[in-house]
Amino acid sequence: MITAQRLHALVRKEFLQILRDPSAIAIAFVLPVFLLFLFGYGVSLDAHHVPVAVVVEQPTQETNEFVAGLSQSTYFQVQPFTQLAAARGALMRHEVEGVLWLRSDFTRALLQQRSAPFGILVNGVDANTARLLEGYLQGVWLTWLQQQSTRSGQVLHLPATLENRIWFNPALRSRNYLVPGLIAVIMTLIGALLTALVVAREWERGTMEALMATPVSLLELLLGKLIPYFLMGMGGMALSVCMALWLFDVPLQGSLGLLILASALFLLVALGMGLLISTVARNQFVAGQIAIIVTFLPAFILSGFIFDIGSMPEPIQVMTHVVAARYFVALLQTLFLAGNVPGVIFTNAGALLLMALIFFGLTWRQSRKRLD
């Protein structure tokens, strides 16, 4: 039986406790700002101003035009070399990330409309940068060929013509999908820490025993813990969304109401995880370690935030279904970049609702209004 007066008193007590011990405020508001600044500016899958060695064995007007076009690109920082051996040495010393090699008969073969010798050496230590660099170089090459054919009045014969249609993220900014995913990872950690650490602190200080000696019911006790930190978590979520929109310029194509609803569902899951952790660990240090291990790390690695789930081994793909952040990442990236896609929204929101019911059910089963 829930009594409004007792529930109001419990919620007021929690807010007073928050004001006296501002660590919860730091977790809800300072931590997301810090992590968004750190990861938002520090994590990027885009390659800009990549140092590239360009070897031109026999300079001509054509090679000069090609190198000039390469230098004007924001993706490359051209470093000229006259010998291939010297460029390879720079690649071995990690002074450049790739080598572009225009051989001595490049211009002659090009003017005779034969296959022009054109070599690319790429440092494959960083596989992502290597793939991006290779794609950028090939794009610059095709653009230059089209310009040459237009200038000469000839038709560029290619086996196939590629027409790009980029949906949802036309600028191909990795930040547009990294930031929404990052919000999901941050809210996973914040939601679990808010409840796990606070409840564990009450056990350490002995105030939980005093609460259990009162007529407060177990449901009122859980709601009294849940409501204040749910409101704080939603405040932290609102701050994160504002930073995504106005600081990182991530577009919001979907409905703001659906975003609020999805955030509320996910925060309930995260708070439920924190409450469940607090029933197992009554020590702040242990609760914090468990929260980081079972929430933050799986959310960072297995949610699809950075690593594509479809490219993971099948057993790992199965494991990702128990990671709540997987569903929230899909919701956020869809709402921010694609809009209101019912198939994605209802499926992932339903999964979050089911997980919230499971976590609160387990918490209720493990919680007892007694000291043992």
Keywords:
elongated, abc type-2 transporter like fold, 372 residues, 66% helix, single chain, alpha/beta
Topology:
Layout: H1 4-20, H2 23-42, E1 50-56, H3 61-71, E2 76-81, H4 84-92, E3 98-102, H5 106-111, E4 118-122, H6 127-152, H7 175-205, H8 207-212, H9 218-246, H10 256-280, H11 284-302, H12 314-319, H13 324-338, H14 342-366
Parallel strand pairs: 1-2, 1-3
Antiparallel strand pairs: 3-4
Helix pairs in contact: 1-9, 2-7, 2-9, 7-9, 7-10, 7-11, 7-13, 9-10, 10-11, 10-13, 10-14, 13-14
Question: Would you write up a description of this structure?
Answer:
This protein starts with a helix and ends in a 6-residue tail after the last helix. It has two domains: 4-43 and 173-366, no CATH class; 50-152, abc type-2 transporter like domain (abc type-2 transporter like fold). It has helices spanning 4-20, 23-42, 61-71, 84-92, 106-111, 127-152, 175-205, 207-212, 218-246, 256-280, 284-302, 314-319, 324-338, 342-366; strands at residues 50-56, 76-81, 98-102, 118-122. α3 links the parallel β1 and β2. α7 runs parallel beside α10 (256-280) and α10 (256-280) crosses α11 (284-302). The model has no long low-confidence stretch (mean pLDDT 83). With 372 residues, the chain is an alpha/beta fold. Strands 2-1-3-4 form a four-stranded mixed beta sheet, with helices on both faces. Helices cover 66% and strands 6% of the residues.
